[in-house]
Write a structure and sequence with these properties.
Blueprint lengths: L1 E2 L5 E2 L2 E4 L2 E4 L8 H6 L4 H6 L1 H19 L5 E5 L9 H15 L3 E4 L5 H11 L4 E6 L13 E5 L2 H10 L3 E4 L4 H15 L8 E3 L2 H16 L6 H4 L2 E3 L3 H11 L6
Parallel strand pairs: 5-6, 5-9, 6-7, 7-8, 9-10, 10-11
Antiparallel strand pairs: 1-2, 3-4
Helix pairs in contact: 4-5, 4-10
Bound molecules: the ligand C/C(=C\CNc1ncnc2c1ncn2[C@@H]1O[C@H](COP(=O)(O)O)[C@@H](O)[C@H]1O)CO.
Ligand LYK5OOP5 binds next to strand 7 and helix 7.
Length: about 250
């Protein structure tokens, strides 16, 4: 709890689309949980059809808000990294370099690496976008976000990360970051998106995973050598931006 300027205690808040919930109004579950975790078969008939309309409205809001974005790059990474960590410093430099190259920066709008990338972009005069997600422990959009949308459903939000970006850059992170990384490479591998660089930054952090992919996935034939080439790895911000501009069909950069 923190004390706000008018002396009132401010605690956690929850965002549901346009609605902000605070204190006792915060429900114990999230919209994603109600959809995915329901074992009550009767509700599937009575409630899920109506939920589909809410899901649809979330797509409409996302499409409508983001259609006017300039070319953009989605940047992912840990919600828990400290501001002075290696990955936050890298993310801030990356956000700035992308803005200078004319790209908007899209993140999950949260703390840690997301906040650092948004800060870098905003400080460099670029456009900073945050696609937040309703979570039991969310902290609201970080202060560097210029255009923010709060989503209820992870899968709707993921569509926006891919549709409105020219590339993904993935910095060190946990389960959320890995989910976003593997979603992207699966979409590229299956040619759902083309000319879409997926760049890992933090060579030391990702080294073990990449070794495992080579020694287990590749050696056991679960992926091909070409699949591995879908992932590019660098710690050099300028190189990351060059990979993105080289793959960008607009030729504007
Ligand atoms: C954990 C804390 C806050 C969580 N807040 C988040 N806000 C927005 N997006 C998030 C949040 N947590 C995870 N994400 C998404 O997953 C990726 C990071 O997850 P990881 O497990 O930390 O790697 C990130 O790219 C977001 O899209 C309080 O510290």
């Amino acid at each position: 709890m923190t004390e706000s300027t008018n002396g009132r205690q401010s605690g956690p808040e929850r965002h549901r689309g346009a609605v902000t919930l605070r204190r006792d109004a915060i429900p114990p579950s999230t919209a994603d949980q109600k959809l995915l975790d329901s074992r009550n078969r009767e509700e599937w008939k009575t409630k899920d059809a109506w939920r589909a309309l809410r899901i649809l409205s979330e797509f409409v809001e996302g499409f409508d808000t983001l259609a006017d974005l300039p070319r953009a790059v989605s940047v992912f990474g840990s919600a828990r990294s400290a501001p002075d960590s290696f990955e936050c410093e890298l993310a801030e430099n990356l956000g700035a370099a992308l803005a200078e190259a004319g790209y908007a920066v899209i993140t999950g709008g949260g703390p840690g690496v997301m906040e650092a990338a948004n800060k870098g972009a905003t400080d460099a005069g670029g456009m900073s976008v945050g696609l937040g997600i309703e979570l039991p422990f969310e902290q609201g959009l970080n202060d560097w976000v210029d255009i923010g949308i709060d989503f209820r459903y992870f899968f709707v939000r993921k569509t926006m990360f891919v549709k409105y970006a020219q590339a993904f850059v993935v910095l060190p992170g946990g389960f959320g970051t890995l989910d976003e990384l593997f979603e992207a490479i699966t979409l590229v591998q299956t040619k759902k998106v083309t000319r879409f660089p997926v760049i890992l930054m933090g060579t030391e952090y990702w080294g073990g995973l990449l070794d495992w992919m080579k020694r287990r996935m590749l050696d056991e034939g679960k992926i091909s050598a070409m699949d591995l080439e879908l992932i590019q790895v660098t710690d050099d911000v300028a190189e990351a931006v060059r990979i993105i501009t080289d793959a960008d069909p607009s030729g504007q950069h």
